[in-house]
Specification:
This protein has 268 residues and is α/β, with parallel strands linked by helices. It folds into 2 domains: 3-210, 3-Layer(aba) Sandwich (Rossmann fold), CATH 3.40.50; 227-266. 50% of the residues lie in helices and 9% in strands. The chain contains 10 helices and 5 strands. The protein has a 5-stranded parallel beta sheet, sandwiched between helices. Helix 3 (66-83) links the parallel strand 1 (60-64) and strand 2 (90-94). Helix 1 packs across helix 7 (191-210), helix 2 crosses helix 7 (191-210) and helix 9 crosses helix 10 (258-266). The longest helix is centred in the first third of the chain and has 21 residues, at 18-38. It is globular. The mean pLDDT is 94. The active site is at residues 78, 109. Homodimer. Belongs to the GCKR-like family. MurNAc-6-P etherase subfamily. It comes from Bacteroides faecichinchillae. Specifically catalyzes the cleavage of the D-lactyl ether substituent of MurNAc 6-phosphate, producing GlcNAc 6-phosphate and D-lactate.
Amino acid sequence: MLITEQSSLYNDLEKKSVREILEDINREDQKVALAVQQTIPQIEKLVNQIVPRMKQGGRIFYLGAGTSGRLGVLDASEIPPTFGMPPSWVIGLIAGGDSALRNPVEGAEDDTDQGWKKLTEHHINDKDIVIGIAASGTTPYVIGALREARKNGILTGCITSNPDSPMAAESDVAIEMIVGPEYVTGSSRMKSGTGQKMILNMISTSVMIQLGRVKGNKMVNMQLSNHKLVERGTRMIMEELGLNHEEAQELLLLHGSVKKAIGAYRIR
């Protein structure tokens, strides 16, 4: 039996108090970071192959169904505002399309051909990277896409919670995060989902740092999409250039990003 389908270590959940349930879930969640830690060599291997491809114009595609698909779309959607990258650089695809972000689409994950079809609509090429996400490692939508991508010389990776899965067999780099049975049996939105989010954070953040989208520890390329981010950018410029608030904000709004504002000021 797949680890993700094994029975919970806890019984009679409906008889537990709220405090007991919360403490049990938290106890299980503490196992996730340790499971992710064990996968760092594989994450590093994948990132080291992603960076040179993206420097040549390659893109990352995340593919998944259900929770896994939603987490891929989430990570992809946060790249433009956080790092100032075009939305075409990291793309999240979910079985069943965007409507599946809110509602389950019956049978979508069982379609072996649909994932690759979606990738071809984006004119995928051998500079790109395809990362499949599935706790079970058995999702046909993802496996079919990875298989075709690999046939076409495209780098493939995966994030799964079961060892030696069919999805891993189609991946150049398999990230196998073994978090154990879920608190509610089979509910991979819990520990597996938490671990997937952590790994996606690690992949995208380390890639963006390597691509020069962070300076020091600051998001110098973030989009100025609200007052909070304008103020954050203003403070960065004040600290970096020693300007007062008014001067720093005027410079920021003139150039549109912290990085551009600082660069323009220094070449005056």
